[in-house]
Amino acid sequence: xxxxxxxxxxxxxxxxxxxxxxxxxxxxxxxxxxxxxxxxxxxxxxxxxxxxxxxxxxxxxxxxxxxxxxxxxxxxxxxxxxxxxxxxxxxxxxxxxxxxxxxxxxxxxxxxxxxxxxxxxxxxxxxxxxxxxxxxxxxxxxxxxxxxxxxxxxxxxx
Length: 158
Prior knowledge:
This protein is mainly alpha-helical. The protein has one domain. It is built from seven helices and no strands. It has helices at residues 3-15, 18-56, 58-65, 72-91, 97-106, 108-121, 131-152. 18% of the residues are buried. The mean pLDDT is 87.
């Protein structure tokens, strides 16, 4: 099993810890209550306004016709941004500057792939709410495992 798969599975196990679930779910439930209240109060007006916009715009019809293609660029962009943010967060307190640079240089492609996988999970309805926490956990597990491997390597002497 490769390191990316191990990191994703370990992140899922960490995600199921009761304290992690509580920290993740209460903001989502508060936001859900807020948005449901707003939808109940202003939903019919918003739907009528959107219908008017759809009826008047030819560009929206074109965008809907190419809809299956639109996620490719954002997924690549979010994969890049995920790996930039999450790798830094995972390594900041644990790795020295040299170790961080070495890990990023050696595992750049794997970090990007992990970022893309996390971005793809964000497209799944309802699971997308958990992706920021899950992605952070996956990068922590992956980066710290790679950091341990780096520290276990013998030191080259000249």
